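Morning - flavin-adenine dinucleotide inputs below, output right after.
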Amino acid sequence: MPKILIVGGGYAGFYTALKLEKWLKSGEAEVTVVDPLPYMTYQPFLPEVAAGSIEARHAVVAHRRHLEKTRVITAKVTHIDHATKTATIEPEDGDAYPFEYDIVVVTGGSVSRTFPIPGVADNAIGLKTIEEAVAIRDRVISNFTKAAALPAGPERDRLLTFVVVGGGFAGIEVFAELRSLATGLLKRFPEIEFDETSFHLIEAMGRIMPEVSLETSHWVLKNLAQRGAEVHLDTQLTSAVDGVIETSSGDRFESDVIVWTAGVMANPQIVRNTDLPVEERGRIVTRPDLRVGTADEIVEGAWAAGDISAVPDLTGGGVGGFCVPNAQHAVRQGKLLAKNLVAVLRDETPKDYFHKNIGAVAGLGLGIGVFQSGKFAVKGVLAWFMHRGYHGLAIPMWERKIRVFIGWFDNFFLGRDIVALPAVQEPRAKFEEFASRPRV
Ligand SMILES: Cc1cc2nc3c(=O)[nH]c(=O)nc-3n(C[C@H](O)[C@H](O)[C@H](O)COP(=O)(O)OP(=O)(O)OC[C@H]3O[C@@H](n4cnc5c(N)ncnc54)[C@H](O)[C@@H]3O)c2cc1C
């Protein structure tokens, strides 16, 4: 039985495994998925998790619950040596060990791409994982709690100043969602005035959200400005040392929450530790049929999809002729990859990946959204319903969809949950404080 190893159980990897379970006949192949996380993260929900509108665990999909015929290994792949068809698996505890395979599927995704700006590595936080989204939510709510107990002054200002770097889709969504959370929190914190909260988004380019039309992006800017959220266009972050924000426009202020969303890059842990071909932007060289390789040269037994791969965009769109890193592609590539892999196993011909962008929909806080497909745009509350409808149905597995919809339904009547649990980072602190110790 051929051994199929899927490296990464995110969007592309999860769907590849799910569909292989469907397409493979019993005994046709053995499938293993390796991921350091025991779940697939539905990343489009991260801004709403950060804003407390979606319960964190509802935005992830447990591998072991939903991949019933796949072997799941919760560990990192730290090396892929395709010449010997061996991957190195490194569990969180215990020694690394070799794993031999016949076919490898590389779906290790991407990580936040940063630049060597002083202070960013030490003070900022990304928005690629559920843990980051939860930490942001807890920090915002805790900062309100702390600020409410302080007199007016620099420390209170610092706690109530929130910064997002990067005006792409993810950046604008989390910025707008956090503004919405903060405005909602003000009702519960009568000690804090609206004008004391300040929100800054720093974007190096002259516009935000390249996925929507310029006109729609202007609408978003205006909407954010009306809600008290300032976008600094054509501005670069030059320093964030000790949380002191300095920009190329000469602004200088302190912030306790700096969210970095200025782009992604193919997972370096995987692309830097493999003999599979990697192109100049660091992605795995991938053919339209999702096999690794070029039009002339196929790397037998190797497949790739999602953010880590450079898949030619046959629609003529994409950046530089390749599919952009988004979930629309990752999901569809994962599904096709499973079909193609089974086809090749059965000596049939794989199909090329072809997907025309279906548009973009963003949630910008409670009751506000934008949708864009070609020249057609919807803004405001209708687009927000479209956002929720689309993503509520797009998260994999009915068990998850139902949890998300019920959560939204509950929030509609009960309001969002504003409890932060930052103490879970040090759960033993309370016990230790009063625990008896043997006398010495
Ligand atoms: C905040 C945010 C909002 C977004 N909103 C949208 C949206 O509205 N629409 C849209 O189309 N796209 C959106 N995206 C983009 C989309 O989520 C990604 O393009 C998509 O997740 C890519 O799928 P993937 O399978 O390539 O990677 P991922 O889903 O990131 O999966 C990669 C997996 O690899 C695992 N992994 C990492 N290192 C290793 C290792 N060493 N060994 C094994 N496994 C490893 C990871 O744990 C992860 O599970 C958003 C992204 C973010 C961050």
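Note: The longest strand covers residues 298-304.

O.
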